[in-house]
């Protein structure tokens, strides 16, 4: 079947013409120091935050990197200890411990970013472009009166970045020309790192508390925490899974979608879905992959009954191997697939379920 090479090669680079040497050298001569906004879940640092550190490292060899963690309670401090040894280039971990941060509400976080940035005078502030970063960074940028650069997939120079546009069909090289700090959200999948394990220890960075005495009582914003629901802790996280099994509208019902879930179980994979499958109510929207869903880049992405609309491809085209099953030989998904099978998913999936061994 068709390989992904043709479509991948179709990507274009747009490079603006105002690449002034003088401008570049002015910026390059400034010292680089980066504040990484890190996320933690309970007592664990999220792996995406280590990707943000990797991105920070590619800004400059001499980058001084600080990690900011906020929350409350003992889990925060355990996560801070983990953060301190997550990468040798992290020089300090700043901890903001307050009930204000017990839930990741954007308003207090944005004010915290302004406070810490202004105290530390960082040249760059980086976080990942998941819901956390997308929520906080634009607000922090507004408070600091700068324009953020979002969804960065490549860093060429401290102020020269690559980001996808047109649902990933073109890559745009943008230069940050602002005078204030450069705020970036990065795609974690473009800065892959190894999982954090108990033996992935490097030298430990210092941990210090953020002085919140000037934080102010007006920091409570218009949003309010209601509840957190998360499902399916058994399965790998969609954003980081090595294998993703995705179902599309062709599954026809929530009941049929369970075939996808069973297949994922057998393969130790995460489940993904197209927006059409989500909109039809087969699965919740946190499983949506694509432009308006999650961006994934697993080693293996299997798409069943997925047409391959550009908005879907925007979220999975960087997967290492793409396998597609579709009964329409002309479905666009086959243009990006490394392996394709023209067939009926209601024949193929049951056969796979029968022939694949049980997960040990
Ligand atoms: C602004 C915007 C943002 C969007 N964001 C996203 C996004 O983030 N993610 C996303 O996925 N979509 C997104 N969409 C929607 C996107 O355009 C498509 O509508 C959607 O991806 C289609 O989903 P699908 O492939 O499941 O359904 P369809 O396009 O209906 O395709 C179903 C496919 O299944 C095949 N099929 C049918 N029956 C069988 C069978 N029995 N066996 C095998 N194959 C079969 C058909 O040949 C077809 O190719 C967005 C759209 C817009 C406008």
TrEMBL record:
Cofactor note: Binds 1 FAD per dimer.
GO biological process, alphabetically ordered: fatty acid beta-oxidation using acyl-CoA dehydrogenase
UniProt entry keywords in alphabetical sequence: Electron transport, FAD, Flavoprotein, Mitochondrion, Oxidoreductase, Transit peptide, Transport
Residues at which FAD binds: 249, 274-275, 288-292, 305-312, 326, 344-345
UniProt main location, coarse: mitochondrion
Gene3D superfamilies tied to this protein: HUPs (3.40.50.620), TPP-binding domain (3.40.50.1220)
GO CC annotations, alphabetized: mitochondrial matrix
PROSITE patterns: ETF_ALPHA
Cell compartment(s), UniProt: Mitochondrion matrix
A single MF term (Gene Ontology): flavin adenine dinucleotide binding
Essential cofactor(s): FAD
SUPFAM superfamilies according to UniProt: Adenine nucleotide alpha hydrolases-like (SSF52402), DHS-like NAD/FAD-binding domain (SSF52467)
Pfam families named in the record: ETF, ETF_alpha
Electron transfer flavoprotein alpha/beta-subunit N-terminal domain: residues covered: 34-219
Binding partners and assembly: Heterodimer of an alpha and a beta subunit.
Function, as annotated: The electron transfer flavoprotein serves as a specific electron acceptor for several dehydrogenases, including five acyl-CoA dehydrogenases, glutaryl-CoA and sarcosine dehydrogenase. It transfers the electrons to the main mitochondrial respiratory chain via ETF-ubiquinone oxidoreductase (ETF dehydrogenase).
Family from the record: Belongs to the ETF alpha-subunit/FixB family.
Protein name: Electron transfer flavoprotein subunit alpha
Organism: Rosa chinensis (China rose)
